[in-house]
């Protein structure tokens, strides 16, 4: 789908809306005339609203997240146009009984149309979920789903390490000279700000950066190191899927998800077990899934109905695959 030229005032890109399909859909559902351009106007209004949300989010977050926000906005605009165009095409397949009349009404075709409309609505819900992803981008920690997560964590660790060394160096200068004046690691403005902080905080020890501040930063560095190690092990683990009586389990490395695909809809007890072990139904993937990691495998160990056909636990299967059994 090609992009349309966007007015300079908007940061988003528009994609084409099939006005002819929108007109046919209107005629199949209503006796009122279709207002030319109304479908495109509706689409533009939705994209503009998403673009405003993206701009607000970019003002709230670090520039490193702006490219991702732009990508999500463009993905929203493109998929929204595809979904709306598909919806118009589906609606135009069979006119409503109000338009066509009850005589010789194509009931079977209408059932197929309704099923297609339901699938289109599932895709609509996924697309609207992209707005939540825009709103949440850059507001939390670094997700394991991010393919650059290890690199970003390493950069975060390096910034923390540099800050730790800087604080220690400045403290050492103050300890030696009993003043911050002339400290080569500080600008004159920073010296005055630190002096004000020290004078205004009665709990501050006789140093620019108190012990608790260095300890907290050190603890955060340890936490980041552990996270890097965990993600590194996870990516090197090489999880494997398996078959079970009634379906398969896929270790989807690309989506970073452990996905359970049943041949038939699982019964209520199974669905309860899945939810209690952290698995959630994804209409888009057509699977019950959760993030692919050791915790997911341990969760699968607790759901006997999805154990491998061999009878061994999923965890045992993973250890065997890694040559540790």
Describe this structure in words.
The chain has helices at 19-29, 38-60, 66-91, 97-100, 107-136, 149-177, 188-200, 211-237, 268-276, 294-301, 314-321; strands at 242-244, 247-252, 257-262, 280-282, 287-291. By secondary structure, the chain is an alpha+beta fold. It folds into 3 domains: 19-136, no CATH class; 149-236, no CATH class; 238-321, no CATH class. A 5-stranded antiparallel β-sheet has the order 1-2-3-5-4, with helices on one face. Helix 2 (38-60) runs parallel beside helix 5, helix 3 (66-91) runs antiparallel to helix 5 and helix 6 (149-177) packs antiparallel against helix 8. The chain starts with 18 loop residues before the first helix and ends with a helix.
What's the topology here?
Elements: H1 19-29, H2 38-60, H3 66-91, H4 97-100, H5 107-136, H6 149-177, H7 188-200, H8 211-237, E1 242-244, E2 247-252, E3 257-262, H9 268-276, E4 280-282, E5 287-291, H10 294-301, H11 314-321
Antiparallel strand pairs: 1-2, 2-3, 3-5, 4-5
Helix pairs in contact: 1-3, 2-3, 2-5, 3-5, 6-8
